[in-house]
Design goal:
Number of strands: 11
Radius of gyration: 13 Å
Number of helices: 0
Shape: globular
Structural class: mainly beta
Distance between the termini: 40 Å
Oligomer: single chain
């Protein structure tokens, strides 16, 4: 069974940094794109970043470009989101997902339950 388990969330001060990790299992990790999404209370889920199977191709939500970095380690079946200069409005549940194409518009087949990033001004 596909399993995606996120970790690393917590309270982050405005302007602070945090690293989120996702541990994947149950599928061929290095044959699939990965993504990070976020969803705040009462908001729609939005795609933050995506990465191709080999890490060569990435896409980012415009508002996080230059501040967030997605990466992956295929030997460890993990994908990471490094978040710098976090804004209070970016407090949300952050989820990782897997799918066939490294595009923010792609279909994402499986999801983790998320890790909560709590922002503070």
């Amino acid at each position: 069974q596909v399993r995606l388990v996120e970790s690393g969330g917590g309270l982050v001060q405005a302007g602070g940094s945090v690293r989120l990790s996702c541990a994947a299992s149950g599928f061929t990790f290095d044959d699939n794109a990965m993504a990070w999404f976020r969803q705040g209370p009462g908001t729609h889920r939005e795609c933050v970043a995506v990465i191709s199977w080999n890490g060569v191709y990435t896409e980012y939500l415009d508002s996080v470009k230059g501040r967030f970095t997605i990466s992956r380690d295929n030997a460890k079946n993990t994908v990471v989101l490094d978040m710098d200069n976090v804004k209070p409005e970016e407090a949300a549940n952050y989820l990782c997902a897997t799918g066939p194409k490294p595009s923010r518009a792609a279909r994402w087949n499986d999801w983790g339950q998320g890790t909560r990033v709590n922002g503070s001004s």
